[in-house]
């Protein structure tokens, strides 16, 4: 999914949620959840778009109608050290695309 397609889907109210996934190396990728699909936001050459921060995402989507967003970060320390028992879920922090706080 490119920015144009994301904009069209957001205008039509079809975007359920955007997950901004934190990856090793200090960048993020965006996964867009629709009713029956999840798609990765891609750049002009079709590769997953590397996003630097929530501010970078806000800049990219400043003309897109708002929709729910969540920052997703997996706890690598728990996975490596095995401190907890049972399934280890990701940290999910809701945020807004609005620049006015």
Provide an overview of this structure.
With 101 residues, the chain is an alpha+beta fold. The protein has one domain. Helix content is 22%, strand content 27%. The protein contains 3 helices and 5 strands; from the N terminus they run H-E-E-E-H-E-H-E. Strands 3-2-1-4-5 form a 5-stranded mixed beta sheet, with no helix packed on it. It is globular. The mean pLDDT is 87.
Q: How do you describe this structure in short?
A:
The chain is an alpha+beta fold and 101 residues long.
Provide the fold topology.
Layout: H1 3-11, E1 17-23, E2 27-33, E3 38-40, H2 54-60, E4 69-73, H3 76-81, E5 91-95
Number of domains: 1
Largest sheet: 5 strands, mixed
User: What distance separates the N and C termini?
Assistant: 28 Å
Strand content: 25-35%
Sum up the overall morphology in one term: globular
Beta-strand segment tally: 5
Overall average pLDDT: 87
Decide which structural class fits the backbone: alpha+beta
Output the number of helix runs: 3
SSE ordering: HEEEHEHE
* Uncertain stretches of 5 or more adjacent residues: none
Rg from Cα: 15 Å
Protein name: Metal ABC transporter ATPase
Organism: Pseudomonas poae
Pfam families: DUF6482 (PF20090)
